[in-house]
Queue: 3 jobs
Job 1
Amino acid sequence: MAKNEPIKQHYIPRSYLKNFGVEGKNGNYFVDAYKLEDEFLLKQISTKSICFKKNLYTIPNAEVDRKYDLEHHYAEHVDSEFPKIYKLLVDENVKVLTPEQKRQVLYVCLSLYFRTPRFLNHQNAFTDQILDRMTLHADEKGDVKFTFEEERHEFNMKDIDKVRHEFKERNRIKFLVQHLEKWKEFVDFKYDCTINVHRINDKNAPLITCDNPVSIRGIKSTRFEGLFNPDSVITLPLDTQYYLEIFPNNIADGQTRIHRMVHDRDYVFTTNAIVQSNAEKLIIGKPGTIETHFKIQSSYEDAENAEEFVAKAKFKLEQMQKFDLLCRKKGFTSKEAISQLKKMLSHKYFKDEDQLINLKRLLTASGHWH
């Protein structure tokens, strides 16, 4: 039996988007989507109607039964696999992955970065700029001649629409090839990473997502510093409560343990801000959560609250960095590291931090906490 011909191709899987939606009839899921350009909130729209592009992955000049191979690959090896990966990551009883599970986590989650049309859109916009500039130099007959990327191009102005289409189709083919190569290469590169999963303990501070949910940025600069920069941290909201973090290679050891942490409203504020800044066109969330996001954002932008938040974040970062350094230099069970942990747990900013409390329990159980 011939496979179906999926022309409407989702670059963000519906199996991912459903975690930010509510279930309706016939297994359909509905989300709120905020259009950044129009500053307009679309309420309870189907996940079928967002984050797709017609024929994005359709292979040109292929035989009929092969032209949708890439779309079928995503459906079989990513979209249908995401629920399994999601279940592993949010199950707090899962402490260690197998090597195969870790690779699958990276393969599936990182696909949400490489398969989006963001780079293709940027290249198409650049192509339009080049063609617009070159048409200004058309001769009296309307003929345009120029060299671009070491290739000679000649056409008449009456064929400009056809030429634009040909350029963009060439860009799309390049995207199909290059994103697959980079995706596989990057999964191999990141295999030795450390995987963290953060849980939000404030039900009134939900996480949101967007149409470009994977963020890659320098751990210190918070800016994109190149795909294969070893200092980069990768993040992905998993649902309204859980958040995936793939730590830099330079502080990783290849282990398959999942480090589980708990965070509060402050973390949601910074995390959602990253998601919003990473979005191309849409912010996406469960019904009502996008309004909540903007309210939280507004409250933190208040001068007094902003000053307190910055001071708190700076203090916590400095103390955690100090603790991390002592653990590395002196050892986790050293008196210096334990003294720093006691100091943090006695402070109001840390007293409810579950991960630090669990460290105390571990040290107590092993006889090192006195």
Job 2
Amino acid sequence: MEKTLAIIAISTLAIQTANAATIYNGDDGRVDITGKVQYEAGALKYDKQDKAQRLNFGGDGTARLGTWFRYHLSEDVDLLGKLEWQFNAEDENDAKTDSLDVRYAWLGFSYRDQLEMAIGRTKSPTSQLVDVTDIFELFGSAANGNRINGIKSFESKKDDQLTLGLNYDRWDLRASYVFEDERRPRETESGHRDYQYSFSARYRADMGVDLVTAYERQSFQGTTPLLGDLTSWGVGVGYQHNSLYLGAIGGHKSMQAGNNEEFSSTFYELASAYQLGEFLVMAGYNKEKGEDNLASEGTRVDEYVFGVSYQLMPRAKIYAEYNIDRIKLDNRSRDDLYGIGVELKF
């Protein structure tokens, strides 16, 4: 979550520089350095062997560092680019091979700050929908982000993605196509993603109301009894009035697997936040209900999330969150999760 109370004050495309340090700003362009250092601790996950039992209290540190630039090619056209890495201080892989990740790596163009195009590892258009209820740091967004047979819908960033954005008047329209090439293998083995495309639209209405909708299609080369093309869609509304924010999204996921098998679910999320001076108080609810033959996974997400954060300074805060998971496994209630964290941006 990279927002304060202005939850869905989203810029076009994948360009987010609200917490950037400008190192060059001239007539020919601008270069910013972005970064974040974060440490979180608590009982944040469930035991892989006993999914009803939470892990012991533990911590994890991460840091991000990147650069964003804009170069004026002409009076109307700008060249844009962003490169950002994430460093994980601790990792489950003892070899530390996964301790450095690329979050963004793209180049693009902007025409009069209204029409934009980018290609590379960019932000997905469906983030406009997810952002409506994405107000937490540790938990939340579990219903829209839950996987169907290992495939995740509404993923925030994708490689090899061509993204287009149009920001005009009250509208923010986005579209993308993901090549998913992995050097474009010619074989058609089941499980190889062929392509993916998505659309989203946001309308800024009067009285602090934002309306959002998103659609996504993932297509695979071949199917199995548990894997096939995945279609996801959702709608959302956000409302902000002074110190109060309310957001809600709902939608549907459907996978057409082999042997005419279909897996599907509906989901919805509710989020609220209220600013009290330097404190931000948050509450949310997430639910996903299956509509297929996976009887053991009828209700897949059913949780309440509560949180509070305190702004130490304009770019630093501390926060605490608590997750009440209502799912039962073998008639056993799942343990509650909880955590605390500190964050500094520059």
Job 3
Amino acid sequence: MIVFKTLRKHTLSHQISIGEQRRWKKKLVESAQTRLENRTRDSKLDKLATKLKTLKTILSIHQLLSTRKRGPFVSVQLMSRWKNILGLNVHMGKFIHKYPHVFHVFTHPLKRNFCCKLTARMKYLLDLEDSVIKQCEFDAVSRIKKLLLISQNGSLHVHALRLIRRELGLPEDFRESILGKYSSDFRLVDLEIVELANRDENLGDAAVEKWRENEYEEKWLSEFEVKFAFPINFPTGFEIGKGFREKLKNWQRLPYIKPYERKQNSVRVRTCGGIERFEKRAVGIIHELLSLTVEKTVEVERLVHFRKDLAMEINVRELLLKHPGIFYISTKGSTQTVFLREAYSKGCLVEPNPVYDVRRKMLDLILLGCRNTRELQHEEDIKEQSDNGVGKIHEGGTGDGDWVIPILESSQNGNSDDHFGQICSLFEEDFDSCSEQSSSESEHAFRGDLN
């Protein structure tokens, strides 16, 4: 009997110890970061995000070149100091060598050092983009009006608009050219907040309403099924778990206050189903904001600046990850970019616009890489003829210094260098010595050269 009691105590203590181990075992918490890492990838949108990152870097180089007072070119040695400013992981020489259709390297006729500038075709596309943005001025005004209609108090911070200026297709001086010009529509408060002077209710139609109307007419669905639904397009390989379809169907039917609707009684989060309706309204606002952009994409960090103005007091990234059929977050590059899935098909915009077409041409020029097109071959033949002509003139007895003018003209015409690869290999040694300097000394030297 005594042996039986001791064995019973031993088994109970062993069970308690096992229970304590199970109780104190850490459980995996599903956070926004884990969801971001475990999401189903979209290879086409990821590739597009990588290309857009390259285009953004080239536009940053163009902005640095435009600040030069001595001319629209800069020495290659100075460009090597821009590596930390641009956030590049490769040498500037290798980066320039990858895109000969965008960058033109030539020898300075007086200092005899290597200089770089943009090609004539890239300059033409940049000027074309500015002219198209000016032509689409009324569309830009309509976009700002719609954003003000979505906002909680009919006002937005100018700083938030400046962050997504390029995404909205606004000119660089939009404060004066749009907000100041259309004073009957916009009103500036303390020069930092823009308000809507006149509320135009005719603009209050969300982009998703057109899709709902087509679904109702073409597929003969009931109004109950379509009235509050969103287009869903999951990426390839997305796993649909048990009960997911039923939850998605109930979420599509869930009523919510649409972005342009105004009701005295706002959504009460603490009521039954209030959290779901509040989140669905936030999904509708982000969906409409992305629909107003030119390329239907924006960086997540810049999207967060609209939380208070658009009454979205939620974790924006976590909300985007909850709806992978509507939004897609790409982590390619140094930033996280969100795409509107329904707007893209095979990496291209379904409904392009004039501003997107020009930027797509820039992207196509970048994607040419080092490939030699017929147009570039024709320019090289012209350059060889001009070089031969310069030698004959010099033999004919012209004055000293006459050879400088044809070289300057050939460099201004954007002719590509025949020995571009050799040039890049020569000055890559200078890049290595410059990259060893500290970032503080590099920025100090860069600012000194600008001044």
